[in-house]
Protein 1
Amino acid sequence: MARSKEFEENAVLEKAMKLFWEQGYEKTSMNDLVEHMGIHRRSLYDTFTDKHTLFLKAMDRFEDRITARLTAGVRQSETASQALRFVFDFIIHGEEDAPPGCMFVNSAVELGIRDADVDAKAMKAFTRTEQMLAEIVSWGQQTGEFTKRYEAKELAEYLQNTLTGLRVMVRTSAPKEKLRRIAELSMHTLKA
């Protein structure tokens, strides 16, 4: 008779995601994962196959988490400016229970050029963010909040680049005031 799992898969995947997010793929050893996740090495392999597969599942979990939180915040916004400000604030201040920065940006920098699976997941996430930004910009253009001098897609690409830089900077000792100034300048460049 097969043994039943002694852990809840989503709970241990959440722990692995946070560890990978904080330390990166290469710095996180199997021993780190076993200890942090609180499961036996055999259970880790039986459930997740190997470290790389676990990492990819952790990236999927991160995407689900961030997409849900960003989507909820944008939908609650009354104006396009408010929605974009929410996105900037979310990136700069992060979440209380999470490492700073973005697991996709971290992973793309660490592994993107060497790991096609990681690159594909990161690029998919970046594209999804650009689409969300293009929708916000288009909304702002329709209401007269944002300039129509450029296409919404072009402005979304610019904003994605700015957000990527901010996601890197929040992992450093850069003061939050500086990051907020960068966000404010980006908001200013969109004004109609």
Protein 2
Amino acid sequence: MSAYGPLLDALRGVRWPARRAVGNAPPGAHRSTQKGTAGEFTEYRLYRQGDDPRALDWRLLARSDRAFVRLSDDRALLSTWIVVDASASMAFPAEAAARSKFAQARLVAVGLAAIAHASSDPVGLLVVHAQGMQRVPPRTRRGTVQELARVLDGVGPGGSAPLAPLVAQLPVHARVVLLTDCLGDADALLRTVAAHTVAGAQVECVHVVADAELALPSGTFLVHDPEQPRDERVLSAAGRAAYRERFDNFRRDMRTRWRAAGAGYTEVRTGDDAARAARAVVMGTALSGAGQPTEGPKPPAPSSSVGR
């Protein structure tokens, strides 16, 4: 965990409040949809047979000659699922000197897991990669964040496995955080997310974008789809402006559609500080410089130079 030490230190003390009341969960730190007689006072209700007499407001009874019970919002746990896209496109850029989309997603995922775990919420992990998926059920025990980090460190991006079928199997009374470049089964995933949010899930999309996707180098390049190797084309200087326009439209479309599905949305770039990125997800704010991410064609990834 030494590689994650500075990240975890920077996030110490950060808490992740639920965006809305939590239903159908054990007692915890978040406001619950259930009403009780402990916690933060919210309203009065007329006394009914079977109510605990200790919940009566005796002063109000003396003033009004009517028996009222003080109700409060109970507190509940919010299980958090961290879902990481480890498809082939997340390996971009492949250069050793640059942080890949998967490397950034891994850092932010560990940071978010630590924040959720610090609130005593159960935290689990789902990583989708070429060999299928790895799943760690939500846990609150000590060492959970370290375990999730070890699983992520042992995964290499590859393949093109869809996210939607696996996300559909996650419980709806949970927080689901998806770290992805949105270049896979985005349409199916958004339909799944919309159904989950209607059922009560709290969903966050962390859209990971590589700096190299935003600022292509000069020259002429052969570009290819890492998940469809036969799909390749030459990208010249003349096509660079058209590519950037399409990619900007794609990012705007993603932001609009994720929010329309009832989910939170944060664009995170590979050059962003991972701790700041995790804080932005928790606070629901945009990172400075992030684009105004609506569907355009899947952008190509630079692969190799064919001339300059």
